[in-house]
Every structure is written in structure tokens, then in C-alpha cells.
Automatic annotation (TrEMBL):
Sequence similarity: Belongs to the C/M/P thioester hydrolase family.
CDD domains: Thioesterase_II_repeat1, Thioesterase_II_repeat2
Transmembrane segments: none
Organism of provenance: Zalerion maritima
Pfam families per UniProt: 4HBT_3 (PF13622), 4HBT_3C (PF20789)
Coiled coil: none
UniProt keyword Cytoplasm, yes or no: no
Identification of the protein by name: Uncharacterized protein
A Gene Ontology biological process term: fatty acid catabolic process
GO CC terms, sorted: peroxisomal matrix
Length: 375
């Protein structure tokens, strides 16, 4: 897919745009700060819609998976935290005695699949605040009917008055003041441990992160592995780790994803908003890659995120992401455990300078295609 298609992809600030909603009646849940997403969340598999109905089948007689109806989980996860950040920023602007606190952790739970044709409505409830630490609860829900905009995007504010469905996502978000570093310890960087592999090609010579990283699709239709697709915000490249992973047990295998911004963030973007770029990225294809490593990428029954924790290790400025040709960050993904129809993905986020900036730990469904659905 050529550069002209890449230019049509949404930037991070476009896909994350949210509007504050008018307050509700006092004493009602709606008197809490609320926000509405403006743009349709990215839909995994939307770039493969052309494959549907053309007779393509995977091994074992299983047809190609239908286009997903559940949107990208990284959208509601990141946007929930963004809503919490905006409320925290407002609190600090009104309370002159409060110290600046930045995003620290996000602990999220997915309870229902999100729909692309309607907005997310976020309700933000500050829980506790001290001089150096605070916590906020964010709940996300969607209207029970599609947007009043027939295009299913660029949602009008009137969508916020539609009847609401049940909460589909909940996040506990923490904020922390910055501290001076008394001691800095980390394992050798991903760039040093995989130096020979990473330096064997320039980043753009690695293939794009696939629209859907399902081995059955990639093997049956090789062109999919070369598609850039419409994933927003980031240019992402997947390092070929086939030789490294060969004959290793699951817990020793690694996948490396290189990523950089498609466009600069606004000059007034907060440090926490910079950090949310990495949060948005690290949900990409993780449970699908797990299924591939378990050996049933051609017999995939289903994947879904259940719980997800993201921890920023240092001060927030370490998460700042610049726009530039050589500003490549690295997601180092591994899978310590799989069983009972679920699996764990753990990812370390590495800066271009080799600093371990953050870690994600996500538990999700990853099932083989079978009658009983057991892993």
C-alpha cells in the first residue's frame, strides 16, 4: 500500500478526540465529568473486508474469519485514561495548592465488546487525592443504538443523549508526582540483546505489522503480510523473529514491533498524552500472535482482552515521543503463560535510546477453533 494511503490514516490526536459533555442533574451519576469520543474506533480486520465471500478458506476447512465486529481495545483503554487526565488537569488548574501529577498506571477490565458505529461515553469519578498520588475511576459505555450520523463516524453531540447500554469497560487510573532518580536499574536494552537482528535491516525494510496477525490468513494470502492498512496514529513494523524463536518454548519466545508517529503531536500535548501513544500501540495483535505461537493460527476460535495493566516506570517525561524518521520505539512482547482458554501477554516498551519506559500485562481469551473451545 503506497504512501498516498498512509496519508489518509488518522493521526493520534484525531482518533483520540473527545468532547466534554454538559453536566447532568446534581446527585445523578451524570453530575460527574463526562466525555464523548468523536471518531469511530478502528476495527481490526476492516482492511480485509475484500476477502470475504470470495471462497477463501483456511486449513481444516475453516473459512476465513469474518470481519471483526469488536473494535480495537486499545481505543477505549487509552481514551478512558485520556478522560481521567483531562479531569486531573482541570483539578490542578482550579486548586493552586495541588502539585502536578502525571499518568502513572492504568488497570482496565473489558466487559463487553465495543461497536464502531457509535461513540464511547466516559464517566470520570475521582476516588482519592493526596499531595503526591491520586486515583480515578473511569467507566465507559456506548449507546444501545448506532450514531445518528448515518456514516457512523464524526459523532454529533446529540449521540450522548441516546439510551445507554451497559458499561463495556472500566479503568482505575493513577497519577503521581515526579521524583528525582536516586538509582536507575534495568536489564540490558532490547536494542543490545537483539542487536544483530535489529541491525540486519533498516526499520522500514521490515514488513508492516499485519492488519490481522493470524498465520492462517498470512500463509493463505501472502499479500496481507505486505499491507500497511488503516491502523491510526503509528507506523508499525514487525521484526522477523522466526529463526530466534525456532524450537524455543512459548515463554522464551519474543516478538519485536517497531513503531513511530505518523504525524507530530500538537505542541501543547501534555506529557501524559505522549505516554498514551504507547498505551494505544501496545494492544496491537498481541493475542493473535499468541495464537500463532500456540500453533492454531489457522484454527483460531476467538480472542478477546479481559484485563490489562499498564505501568509507567520512570517520570512521565521519559515517555515523550518525538516525530521523526529515526524515532523508532520498540515493543518487546512475550507470553509467560497460556491455559484454560486464556493467555498472558507481557510487553516492555523501549525508547529509541534503550530505556525501559513502561510495561503492559494483559490477560485475554485465546481459543482454538473446536466444539468445546478449550485451549
Amino acid at each position: 500500500m503506497g504512501p498516498e494511503k498512509m496519508q489518509q490514516r488518522q493521526t493520534f490526536q484525531e482518533i483520540m478526540e473527545i468532547l466534554p459533555l454538559p453536566p447532568g442533574k446534581e446527585g445523578n451519576q451524570n453530575d460527574q465529568p463526562r466525555f464523548m469520543s468523536c471518531r469511530s474506533a478502528w476495527l481490526p480486520g476492516c482492511d480485509l473486508a475484500f476477502l470475504q465471500g470470495n471462497g477463501n478458506v483456511l486449513g481444516h476447512g475453516k473459512p476465513l474469519p469474518r470481519t471483526h465486529t469488536a473494535v480495537y481495545g486499545g481505543h477505549v483503554y487509552s481514551q478512558s485514561a485520556l478522560a481521567a487526565c483531562l479531569v486531573r488537569k482541570d483539578h490542578e488548574s482550579r486548586d493552586r495548592d495541588s502539585k502536578s501529577q502525571a499518568l502513572h498506571t492504568i488497570h482496565g477490565t473489558f466487559t463487553l465488546a465495543g461497536h464502531a458505529d457509535r461513540p464511547f461515553i466516559y464517566t470520570v469519578s475521582p476516588l482519592s487525592t493526596t499531595k503526591s498520588f491520586s486515583t480515578t475511576l473511569v467507566t465507559a459505555a456506548q449507546p444501545s443504538a448506532p450514531s445518528t450520523n448515518p456514516d457512523g463516524d464524526n459523532f454529533p453531540i446529540d449521540d450522548s443523549t441516546l439510551p445507554m447500554g451497559q458499561s463495556c469497560f472500566q479503568a482505575l487510573v493513577s497519577f503521581k508526582t515526579a521524583e528525582s532518580t536516586q538509582r536507575h536499574e534495568q536489564e540490558p536494552s532490547v536494542q543490545s540483546r537483539f542487536k544483530n537482528i535489529l541491525e540486519s535491516r533498516i526499520p522500514m525494510d521490515w514488513p508492516p505489522a499485519p492488519p490481522l496477525d493470524i498465520s492462517g490468513i498470512l500463509d493463505a494470502i501472502p499479500m496481507v503480510s505486505r499491507m500497511v492498512g488503516t491502523f491510526p496514529a503509528l507506523e508499525m513494523r514487525k521484526v522477523d523473529m522466526t529463526t530466534y524463536n525456532k524450537d524455543k518454548p512459548l515463554y522464551e519466545r519474543r516478538e519485536l514491533i517497531l513503531y513511530r508517529l505518523l504525524a507530530p503531536l500538537p505542541k501543547d500535548a501534555s506529557p501524559s498524552e505522549h505516554a498514551l501513544v504507547h498505551v494505544y500501540e501496545c494492544d496491537r495483535n498481541g493475542l493473535l500472535m499468541l495464537a500463532n505461537h500456540l500453533g492454531y493460527g489457522d484454527r483460531l476460535g476467538g480472542v478477546a482482552s479481559l484485563t490489562w495493566t499498564y505501568v509507567i516506570h520512570g517520570n512521565i517525561d521519559e515517555s515523550r515521543i518525538e516525530f521523526g524518521e529515526d524515532e523508532w520505539w520498540v515493543q518487546e512482547a512475550c507470553w509467560p503463560r497460556a491455559g484454560s482458554g486464556r493467555g498472558i501477554i507481557m510487553s516492555k516498551i523501549w525508547s529509541p535510546e534503550g530505556d525501559h519506559v513502561a510495561t503492559e500485562y494483559q490477560d485475554g481469551v485465546s481459543r482454538r477453533w473446536s466444539k468445546d473451545g478449550k485451549l
